[in-house]
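Internal tracking record. Fields below are filled automatically when a chain is submitted to the structure queue. Please do not edit lines marked as system-generated. If the sequence contains nonstandard residues, flag them in the REMARKS field before resubmitting.
Queue: standard
Priority: normal
Entity type: single polypeptide chain
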Amino acid sequence: MILIIGGTSEGEEIYERLKDKYELYLSVATESGKKLYASKDLIMGRMNKDGFKDFILKNNIDMIIDASHPFAVEVTKNASEAAKEMNIKYLRYARSVLDYEEKDNIVRVPSYEAAFKYIDTLKDKEENFLFTTGSNRIKDFEKVKGKNRFIYRVLPSAESIKVCDDNHIEMKNIIAQMGPFTLEENVALINRYDIKYLVSKESGKVGGTDAKLDACLQTNIICVIITREEENAMHSIDELINYVEANYGRFI
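SYSTEM-GENERATED OUTPUT FOLLOWS
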């Protein structure tokens, strides 16, 4: 039995390509992640390391394929440690880190905490910021808003809207849309809201990071990128599928 950790478009593709050949469970953390799939083998909810270990034991899991988001670091840590302690095979698929030129209007920060500190230095700017980092850290960003207007582009899901509502975000400052977005769509949004700073995670080409960077360059605004390290992982879905098909029998 294989456990696939999904919640990404790549996780969906991996599941679709393996579902007719192997017994699978598919794990997602949220309701919005659940809506990506139509699977009777779907389980929803966040698991810590002990939760993964318990699931592995109860469901005779032989292999974990982790295709979670590159910024879901706790999920990856918990799953990999659980697999190691339970002596089962763990495979990580991760999007490659984008290779892009250094530009004066691209500000690279190594973490959310560094992003908060940088944005806090801009609190008297009275400018419009567009956040494309999801809803998880809205509460923390709001603490450094100062005199600026913060606009959040989030998933059109009940969870995301609730986070906005819980943090008293006005409706005019919520853009609830499903990405990824094209260069033209990002440029249009930047111009419509007179954005001067765009904040993004480095989520790879699949996550639309390249289109956001290009939009910032085209409109000459500041792009604040929360960076990440390249993971020791497979970066090709074909490579991962081929490995599973060639080797899964060894791990049963």
